[in-house]
Amino acid sequence: MNGTQKGNRKRIQWLAPIAALMLALTACSGGSGGGTTAGTGETGTSENNTETGQLRDVSVVLDWTPNTNHTGLYAAVDQGFYEKEGLNVSILQPGAGGADQMVASGEVPFGVSYQESVTQARVQGVPLVSIAAVIQHNTSGFAAPTDRNIKSPKDFEGKRYGGWGSPVEEAVMQSIMDQEGGDVSKVEKINMGDADFFTAVKRDIDFAWIFYAWTGIEAELRNEPIDMLYVKDYSDSLDYYTPVLVTNEKQISDDPELVRSFMKATAEGYQYAIEHPAEAADILIKAVPDLDPELVKASQEWLSPKYQDDAAQWGWQKPEVWQNYGKWMSSQNLLEGEFDSTKAFTNDYLPAAQ
């Protein structure tokens, strides 16, 4: 199983341990997320240095191994968009604690996360803030080889589901099965461990939760047809933002201009990937040569139009999306406190919002 496929499962899971986040915040109290220089822990100044020719070192940490969710970041580096803003951006893979912990604690100023993770963090007092939706609509869903005859959520009954045992899995499954009179207790749940989707469906399971842009496209390339049930098609509340770009409250308070500069260049990077999917795929392949070039190119072609989709601009986040998903999580007893959606996200640092 490649790292991206493992990341695709982990990103739906209760992705960052909230207790670990709180410990990190305690240990790093007083640390600034606003100007951490890549790999040094040093704090930079809050101004861009384009006039002096000096670039400010800034890091952004990914959620998992690089994939087409991240192409806009790599394009912004490759095309000089960050440099134009006076930034020297390093793209990092997460440490053992995960991207959320690194951003919330101030170890790095920016990272890739998910609405479900940010929502859970906020009710625990973890100061993550979403500053852009990478993809406008949820592209995840339950997938099965076509020979399993899973055409609707009710068909999950009597089948073997491969997952990791998180509460959100059963809650989502139950929500969409309830609409068709299905009974989630009749689904056999199996821990997939590190097995990838294609291995697991041949050996242990009938269906799993995937992101079509990667695993679904890979199924096409392997000529292994699947039936895909997108969760957003069964509930507006499940059409949440995944992934998102995040920072922390202290970063916004201490150095809003860095957030603004980073987001201006990042938006340009994703716009480049929207308008030039083939060239953007080549940028990602060049930056991460271990990736399968055929998969990257096909995935990028499929995903590029979905970055912005029907939004007025790339990155825009709608208040109702945050409100609806928070209410759904509360209704499923997945939150341990009150969720204030207005503090969980902001559009203020997107270029058109300046």
UniProtKB/TrEMBL annotation:
Region described as Disordered: 32-51
Location of the SsuA/THI5-like domain: 67-280
Compositionally biased spans, kind Gly residues: 32-42
Entries under Pfam families matching the protein: NMT1
Record's keyword terms, sorted: Signal
Signal peptide: 1-29
Coiled coil: none
InterPro entries given in the database record: NMT1/THI5 (IPR027939), SsuA/THI5 (IPR015168)
Protein name: ABC transporter substrate-binding protein
